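Late entry, written up from scratch paper. The run itself happened at the end of the previous shift, but nothing got recorded in the book at the time, so transcribing now.
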Amino acid sequence: MNIERFHCCATCIHYEVVKKEQTTYRCARLGFETRPIYQFNCWEPKEVVKRKMEKENRQLD
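Output as recorded:
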């Protein structure tokens, strides 16, 4: 499975977009601001991302 292609904060279940006067991006789990393209080892992919990774993996087999 090519995890590097999908692994980033924006595809994680803990990723939040907070829209106030200015839009900010944060990790609800860790409690700090992040960016969509950042990567951390605590990454837990959203269900839709898991399905895409599984589909891609089946196509490679």
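The chain has one domain: 3-60.
(Scratch paper discarded after transcription.)
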